[in-house]
């Protein structure tokens, strides 16, 4: 099975601490690398993750609060100094584009690669990136400003060929692709060998949903139904539920409710308030609702599925 991993570069919230960096992640899927959010310090975290800067194909910004995007311009500038030539795609809300382009003209002149901006509508779920192996879809969220999460979903693979059956029926290599695409095989004696006997099912497609920042949404589980791994902000414990509602964030218990109702495989907590010196209280609260929960932390690498 090809790689599908999430690298946590930062999982803190807006107020800087010595324990956590602002939000940023890498999603590595089938040889492609994407970044989700780019808070301050992301370049240093990239160095620590030993990820080659040139591998990052696109950056998806959830919203325009500084702890999710202040690192973007500096990272692009560094890409230029490192001699990047491959295009970089940036996905963010449309209102960011004029400011972003002005900053690019001021600080990033002479780049040897194109930076292509894609405006994102945060109000509805839609596929904004697609290639032969995956899609990236927006997840509308409920925050103080326009905000969306992102859902990375593998496309279904073709079934696996059963080599023993191919050899037994002396099926030529030229027919392998036809069989993978559903064709039966007819022997020289006219016997029809059903495709189901010649193949075995491919692995189920894997998926990863990133949801930060948002107030608890009772209907969010419908948009992330059955995902393999869900990252959901857990800024507060239930003790601070009023703060969560006031500032449009979620408690750990609310994140777990989404995971439980969506029947996800695993929940990853993050975007911790600086008030918590020990995030185990968040983990305990979430696990009381949804047992398959872990804490994110800088340097953590999550294998999706």
TrEMBL record:
It comes from the Bacteria. GO terms for molecular function: 3'-tRNA processing endoribonuclease activity; zinc ion binding. The active site is at residue 67. InterPro entries: RibonucZ/Hydroxyglut_hydro, RNase_Z/BN. It catalyses: Endonucleolytic cleavage of RNA, removing extra 3' nucleotides from tRNA precursor, generating 3' termini of tRNAs. A 3'-hydroxy group is left at the tRNA terminus and a 5'-phosphoryl group is left at the trailer molecule. Its cofactor is Zn(2+). Belongs to the RNase Z family. NCBIfam families: PRK00055.1-3, RNase_Z. HAMAP family: RNase_Z_BN (MF_01818). This is Ribonuclease Z. The gene is rnz.
């Amino acid at each position: 099975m090809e790689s599908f991993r999430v690298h946590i570069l930062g999982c803190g919230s807006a107020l800087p601490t010595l324990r956590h960096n602002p939000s940023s992640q890498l999603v590595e899927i089938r040889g492609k690398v994407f970044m989700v959010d780019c808070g301050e310090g992301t370049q240093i975290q990239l160095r620590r993750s030993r990820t080659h800067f040139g591998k990052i194909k696109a950056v998806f910004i959830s919203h325009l609060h500084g702890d999710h995007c202040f690192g973007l311009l500096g990272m692009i500038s560094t890409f230029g100094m490192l001699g990047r030539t491959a295009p970089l795609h940036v996905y963010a809300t449309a209102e960011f584009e004029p400011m972003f382009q002005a900053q690019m003209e001021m600080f990033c002149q002479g780049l040897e690669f194109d930076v292509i901006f894609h405006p994102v509508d945060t109000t509805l779920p839609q596929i904004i990136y697609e290639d032969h192996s995956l899609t990236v879809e927006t997840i509308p969220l409920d925050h103080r400003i326009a905000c969306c999460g992102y859902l990375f979903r593998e496309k279904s693979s073709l079934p696996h060929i059963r080599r023993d059956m191919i050899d037994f029926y002396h099926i030529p290599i030229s027919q392998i692709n036809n069989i993978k695409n559903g064709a039966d095989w007819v022997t020289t004696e006219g016997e029809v060998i059903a495709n189901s006997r010649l193949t075995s099912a491919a692995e189920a497609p894997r998926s990863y949903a990133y949801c930060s920042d948002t107030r608890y949404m009772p209907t969010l589980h419908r948009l992330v139904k059955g995902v393999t791994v869900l990252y959901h902000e857990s800024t507060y414990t239930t003790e601070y539920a009023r703060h969560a509602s006031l500032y449009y964030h979620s408690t750990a218990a609310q994140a777990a409710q989404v995971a439980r109702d969506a029947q996800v495989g695993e929940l990853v907590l993050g975007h911790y308030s600086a008030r918590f010196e020990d995030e185990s209280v968040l983990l305990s609260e979430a696990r009381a609702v949804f047992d398959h929960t872990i804490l994110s932390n800088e340097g953590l690498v999550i294998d999706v599925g």
